[in-house]
Specification:
With about 425 residues, this protein is α/β, with parallel strands linked by helices. Helices cover about 35% and strands about 20% of the residues. Strand 3, helix 5 and strand 4 form a beta-alpha-beta unit.
């Protein structure tokens, strides 16, 4: 792992260029994609201490008990298109340093980064057969779920696929950690720092063309903060839509023609239900890339909880705006939503922030932080409909996911002769 992180740093530009070419995100964002994965590789370098068990001598006379963590065997990962480097690096570095072999299925839409990372792992000295790449779609996913030798599966992607994998693989007795959809909310209080908050909303809503499971896609304006909408629209108009390889690009294209059509349909469904389209990016044309799958920043306001554009994860550069009269009303909006990946609040009040972090039903909470994804010595802790399983990605939970615990009780003492046989259940006094 020490060598692998060195090689990833060496080839950072090459990896980022591949991601931009295949996936479409800007080069700057592609560098971030690789770097966030690199952090997990660096965390895995400390696996010797992360796997430490527990030891208690003399739990009874002459008897010691200790626990160790052992690998599961063969594990697998099924990856989405939106982070071609980061998500694979969430998975296989932790798994293999825990002693497992790993089968990685990258997205069929952008598999190049996974292949490049596997080549670097081989160059770093990973033994043959430890990391394996397979390609395909539904049939390959089902084969992974059904394979008797695979003990655990990591998945990141949509709810439909995630719940299918969780159900099918769990029925076969496998461990599953399934990170799925999201509808992350940002609550804007009237006392928030206006300039910093608007910049945060733009970055978190439109970065990566909104194709992030932690995108801040829903804004809940509390009280007078709704008056900031016009300023938000004006700043969004200044963002540049272009091919990701172009140096001035703020937003690249979405992943496919089908994705663009779905995003446009969801935006239109909101308009038809009474939402107001303050900024429409559906007909943006990029000179030189006229056939690209581009959507510009789009802002809907007057959205209500019964609209499809709110209930569905849009996964595009669309901000859905709602109104609340108080913090309590805003919290009710967030907590009634089925998803629980993340939520943020923008405020200068410590009391408001404390109430929010205590009462909000989301796994990852931001206070004046729009995308509160933790560093890898914590874990990615989405909940509710955003996660299926018991153990989250990376951090201590990730180590526990890829290992099984074994407890050893040992006795080293001479027993007196003629002590006889006791069939009673042993206790600490009678061991």
């Amino acid at each position: 792992m020490f060598k692998l992180q060195e090689l990833i740093r060496r080839d950072m530009d090459k990896l980022a260029k591949n991601i931009t070419t295949e996936q479409g995100k800007t080069l700057k964002d592609a560098h971030g994609d690789v770097f966030r994965g690199l952090e997990v590789v660096e965390h895995s370098c400390g696996m010797a201490t992360l796997q430490m068990g527990e030891y208690v001598p003399n739990v009874a006379s002459g008897i010691d008990t200790y626990s160790v963590r052992e690998p599961l065997g063969v594990c697998a990962g099924i990856c989405p298109f939106n982070f071609p480097a980061m998500i694979p690096l969430w998975m296989f570095p932790v798994a293999v340093t825990c002693g497992n072999t790993f089968v990685l299925k990258p997205s069929e839409k952008d598999p190049g980064a996974s292949i490049m990372l596997a080549e670097l792992a081989i160059e770093a000295g990973l033994p043959p057969g430890v990391l394996n790449i397979v390609h395909g779609t539904n049939d390959i996913v089902n084969a992974i779920c059904d394979d008797d030798d695979i003990r655990a599966i990591s998945f990141v992607g949509s709810n439909t696929a995630g719940m299918h994998i969780y159900g099918r693989a769990s029925a076969k007795g496998k461990r599953v950690q399934s990170n799925m959809g999201a509808k992350n909310h940002g609550i804007v209080m009237p006392d928030a720092n206006k300039d910093a908050t608007l910049n945060a909303l733009l970055a978190a809503g439109f970065g990566a063309a909104g194709q992030r499971c932690m995108a801040l896609s829903t804004i809940v304006f509390v009280g007078d903060s709704e008056s900031w909408l016009n300023d938000l629209v004006e700043r969004a108009k200044g963002l540049k839509v272009n091919a990701g390889i172009e140096p001035n690009a703020d937003l690249g294209p979405v992943i496919s023609k089908q994705a663009k059509e779905r995003i446009c349909r969801l935006v239109q469904s909101g308009v038809e239900r009474g939402a107001k389209l303050l900024l429409d990016g559906r007909n943006v044309v990029v000179p030189g890339y006229e056939q690209g799958n581009f959507i510009g920043p789009t802002i809907l306001t007057g959205v209500t909880a019964d609209m499809e554009c709110y209930k569905e994860e849009i996964f595009g550069p669309v901000l859905v705006c709602m109104k609340a009269d108080s913090l309590e009303d805003a919290l009710n909006i967030v907590n009634r939503n089925k998803y629980g990946n993340g939520a943020s609040i923008f405020t200068t009040s410590g009391a408001v922030a404390r109430k929010f972090q205590t009462e909000v039903e989301a796994g990852q909470v931001g206070i004046n932080v729009p995308i509160p994804v933790p560093l890898p010595f914590f874990s990615f802790t989405g909940n509710k409909a955003s996660f299926a399983g018991d153990l989250n990605f990376y951090g201590k939970a990730g180590v526990n996911f890829f290992t099984q615990i074994k407890t050893v009780t040992q006795q080293w003492k001479d027993l007196p002769s003629g002590s006889g046989v006791s069939l009673a259940m042993p206790t600490s006094q009678k061991l």
